[in-house]
Amino acid sequence: MARYRGPACKLCRREGTKLFLKGNRCLTEKCSVDRRAYAPGEHGQAAARRRKVSEYAKQLREKQKVKRIYGVSERQFRNTFERVRKLPGVTGTNLLVALETRLDNVVHRMGFAASRKAARQLVRHRHIEVNGRVVNVPSFSIRPSDEVRLAEKSRDLVAVRASLEGLARATPVSWIIVDSEKVAGKVTEMPTRDMIPIAAQEQLIVELYSK
């Protein structure tokens, strides 16, 4: 499955906001979004001067922004939407909840990895256990009371040790509790919209896919 492997800041510039694709490094490093507040490419500055943006363009950019924040492909994103649209409740909220409870995102939220990309790599390389069993599927859905643990043999990896050193300073979301001594965490409840710290207008995504 093809994935974007270019500069992360280029995606942030395209969406016009920080997507925090590098994790906490985005808080300390100077971001190109601040220096060049327009989309990349030869037509970026010209597009920034345009005053009128169509409704479709707004919907598309919102979808692209959320998709890039969570690091999923177009097919994964669309399949997730088709699955949650059949569920009761608000479709946009259900979409964000489904993305938030992916295993790779939960590992990142717990502070075991500096970014979602790094968390996805930990999962794929079999460094993460869910309820005592190794799970190597980043899209695996975590449910309330599930325990996510970093495998003991994996705690000496350089990248993992760097993340664990900052674990004490991490501020996980309210629906997750973390035991830094056991390097494990647990999902206490399914998050609601106000528990998800993502600045997104999910209703625009619903409108885009409903056409």
Q: How does this structure look, described?
A:
With 211 residues, this protein is an alpha+beta fold. The protein contains 11 helices and 5 strands, in the order αααααααααβββαββα. The protein has a 5-stranded antiparallel β-sheet with strand order 2-1-3-5-4. The longest helix has 16 residues. The chain is globular, with a radius of gyration of 18 Å. 30% of the residues are buried.
Short description:
This protein is 43% helix and 8% strand. The radius of gyration is 18 Å and the shape is globular.
Features:
globular; alpha+beta; five-stranded antiparallel sheet; 211 residues; 43% helix; 5 strands; single chain
Number of strands: 5
Principal-axis shape equals globular
Tell me the β content.
5-15%
The helix-strand sequence is HHHHHHHHHEEEHEEH
Strand order of the largest sheet: 2-1-3-5-4
Number of contiguous helices: 11
- Classify the secondary structure makeup into a structural class: alpha+beta
